[in-house]
Amino acid sequence: MTTQLDSTATEPVRPARRRRRLPDTAALAVVLVALAIFFSTQSPFYLTPNNLLNILVNAAVIGIIAAPGTLLLVAGQFDLSVGSGAAFIGVVMAWSATQWGIPTAVLLALAAGLVIGMVNGFAVTVLGINALITTLATLAILRGLGQVIAGGQTLLLSGFGDLGNARPFLDIPVPVLILVAVVVVMALVMRFTVFGRSMYAIGANPVAARLAGIRTRTMIFGGFLLSGLAVSVGGLILVSQLGAASPNAAMGLELSVVTAVILGGASLAGGRGTILGTVLGVLILGTLNNGLTLMNIDSFWQDVARGVLLLAAVGFDQLRLRFLSDK
Amino acid sequence: MTQLTLSLRDISKSFGGVEVLHQVNLDAVGGEVLALLGENGAGKSTLVKILAGDYTPDGGTIVVDGAESAELNPRSARRLGIRMIHQEFQDAGALTVAENISLGRWPGRGGVISWSRLRRRAEDVLGQMGVDIDPGATVGSLRVGERQIVEIARALADDAQLLILDEPTAALSQQEVDRLFEWVRRLRDRGVCIVYITHRLDEVFELADRVQVLRNGDVALVSATSDVTRRELVEAMVGRDIGEVSRPADLGAPTLGEPLISIRDLEVDDQVAGLSLDVSPGEVVCLYGKLGSGTTQVAEACFGIRRPTRGQLRIGGVEGFPSSPVDAIRRGVGYLPPDRKREGAFMNRTVVENLAAASWSRLSSLGVILARRERSAYDRWSGKLGIKSADPTVQAIANLSGGNQQKVLLARWLERGSNPLVLVEPTRGVDVGARQEIYSAIRALSREGQAVLVVTSDYEEAVQLADRVVVMQRGRQAAEFAGDDVTAQNLTIAAGG
Fold first, then answer.
1. So which residues are the signal peptide here (chain B) (predicted)?
2. Do B390 and A16 touch (CB under 8 A)?
């Protein structure tokens, strides 16, 4: 028992990590549990397996898009075009399926997602337009293009229900499985790969990142590309769930994504944020929406709640930044 | 106009337990230009910030017009007519000259600005100064010298009695300097007291009636300008205790092979003209010059941050100017930037990450960073450079001391195997003990075959580090010293005092 003590005299004190990392995510977990307890007292249906799965299914698209969204925010970037992007993807899918069949349409939809990511990435990294303006512009462009292709109509799509509705494994719907896969992969990417760590470095200090030889523009471009890809997956899930594509779908999805990411502890100042936090943020958002619905509260109030949550999350972030810089 | 007399008596001030001013006196008298002279870190800025009410002194008294005043805060300083013109402009670039001149005191009624009165006030002041600047132009569109004059006009419109100018000529052309001096003299003749901070001796003799030299937080000399010589001023600034700053013990070792940095007739915009120098493996060469002398531009050219306008540069065995930091890094150049916080460290990231950031591709396999390899990079250099971190894989670099941070950033390039190294102000904001450790580490590295170019504005650093020193003054190569000729006196005089 005593033989190894001498060689580790200067060995670091491990608990430091726990002490410092715990508060953020732990506080979120507490909020989530508190919300769950509250809603279960308000509605007998809340705490049923079906309803909990329902929350997950509804949160799946937000979560899938919020995962690369976290990566972007960590690098000090963000993508507001995801909502109209998802609707656009749905329209592309439904429209091309009638022309060339479903397999080709899926490929086209995925390609369209990558193109969206490339356009955003090009504008931000090569033209040097900031992410807010760039993605606000593509938000409008994609919403408009979707309307044009769909001719302002809702396009029906049959024979493409499995992606959104099938339960191939343990009775879990496909979107939830995809969510889990995306979240795990992104968490690993952010934590262990050169790409992920470079994004943290870029967000923490863009000048220093450039001077350390990190290819900041390539990395950020890659982040937008991943975001575009996630948008196409999310858009496909949405169109599959509904069996139809509306150019007006996914209104305000970007707000949910940004809210979840910031709620999850990613800082608008960059360099800080985790996938675990974002997952908790997504779940809190989903729980809130679900619970308010079960309580028969008007969906308009859900928008209000979401906005308040975003303000609260950003306000908290600002307080934390001020606290940190005061030290 | 009534003239203000303000005296600081036995002022002391500490930051974080380090006393930067020891019982310093200063007299500011209306109708006189007082030059405040001293090296970086001598305490000039702290002293004038106390004068401007920005800092509260820890001890001492402030006497205004013969009456002892309990304290000087930004508000009371303003009331007394004390104004400071900072090195970095504190104007609003998007607003007009007229708006800036009355900034914070825009005339009007009930929140509605009277543009005619605003403009008239600006024209009055500018007219008094005899300056031809359009009050309607936005300040951002003005040249640096004009901007400075607008700031002075603003102080004047505010009825300044005591004007503090903090190294106002750093970014000015000779013509603009001449104009500025004219305004300063005019203000003095109107009874305004001027405290003029500088480290250029020429300006002292040209402008000042009296000169006060600070050194390491003490007053080293106070005298009428006419009673003092250049030599005396340099000695007061540098000190006779200069013998304590010793040259490295291992001088005279032969260089090891061809130069890794070779610069010929380098020209960078209008900031560097005709610089030539070589740095070979096995030697530490210092490029020494005052702030604004062009030394930083040379360093930036070596690392592909700034593109030179003319000349030849051969670095890391490749001919031609590096096109970007990535290009320079590929040639093997390592670069320690002057501003650690802004350009060097990822403050909220861990020590290990900061150290490994330039070597991730080598420490990873298929894009996945191997934690063990990353950690071993830290272990490789922590002992050699004396980096002290309680838990390098978890601790954020922000929680290390300045000296330790700097060692981590140095190790970033050593881990990458970079050679040559370009180190800009390597010990800025580093305490004395750690400074010596960094110096001996740099010397040791050079003995092992590193070519090191140290760019510094601290002559003590050059004396303690360099095999050879190239001195720059106002963009030009002023002198080169080697061996025993590298002395504080030689360096400061060559750099323009």
1. none
2. yes
The answer as to whether A45 is a domain residue is: no
Instruction: Give me the number of domains chain A comprises.
Output: 1
Answer whether B325 sits within 8 Å of A211, measured CB to CB. yes
CB of A231 closer than 8 Å to CB of A139: no
Residue A93 sits in a domain of what CATH number? 1.10.3470
| B85-123 pLDDT per residue, tens | 877 667 777 788 888 887 777 777 777 777 788 888 888
Answer with the residue of higher pLDDT: A227 or B62: A227
Question: Which domain range does residue A268 map to?
Answer: 50-326
Burial of A217 (0-12, 13-18, 19+ CB in 10 A): middle
Nearest to B349 among A12, A14, A200 (CB): A200
Q: List the single best residue of B369, B389, B415 to mutate versus A (max A Cβ within 10 A).
A: B369
For domain B5-242, give the fold: Rossmann fold (3.40.50)
Q: Report pLDDT digits (tens) over B53-86.
A: 888 888 888 888 777 776 777 778 878 888 888 7
Could you tell me the residue ranges of all domains in chain B?
5-242, 244-494
- pLDDT value at residue B48: 86
B143 contacts chain A (CB < 8 A): no
Same fold for the pair B5-242 and B244-494: yes
ipTM of this predicted complex? 0.78
Crossing angle between the packed helical segments A253-263 and A275-294, to the nearest 10 degrees: 120
Residue A148 lies in a domain: yes
Residues of B in contact with A271 (CB under 8 A): 346, 348-349
Using DSSP bridges, classify how beta strands B33-37 and B368-369 pair: parallel, antiparallel or unpaired. unpaired
Return the CA Rg of chain A: 21
Pick A195's closest partner by Cβ from B357, B367, B393.
B367
Chain A CB within 8 Å of residue B357 CB: yes
Q: Do B360 and A194 touch (CB under 8 A)?
A: yes
Predicted structure pTM score: 0.76
| B28 SS3 class | strand
pLDDT digits (tens, 9 = 90+) for A149-183: 988 888 888 888 778 778 888 888 999 999 999 99
Neighbouring C-beta atoms of residue B93, cutoff 10 Å: 12
Q: Are A17 and B347 within 8 A, CB to CB?
A: no
Q: Express each pLDDT in A30-81 by its tens digit.
A: 888 888 888 888 888 888 888 888 889 989 999 999 999 999 999 999 999 9
What CA–CA distance (Å, rounded) separates A274 from A70? 7
Q: Does B364 touch chain A (CB under 8 A)?
A: yes
- Domain assignment present for A287: yes
Counting one residue from chain A and one from chain B, the pairs whose CB atoms sit within 8 A come to 82
Query: Contact A16/B358, CB-based, under 8 Å?
Result: no
Contacts of A211 in chain B (CB under 8 A): 303, 305, 325, 335, 337, 343-344
Compute how many other C-beta atoms are within 10 angstroms of the C-beta atom of residue A316: 14
User: Could you tell me the pLDDT band of residue A5, with boundaries at 50, 70 and 90?
Assistant: very low
What's the rounded Cα separation, in Å, for the pair B488 and B497? Answer: 11
CATH number of the B244-494 domain: 3.40.50.300
Alpha helices in B276-426 (DSSP H): 295-302, 325-330, 351-356, 360-363, 371-385, 402-416
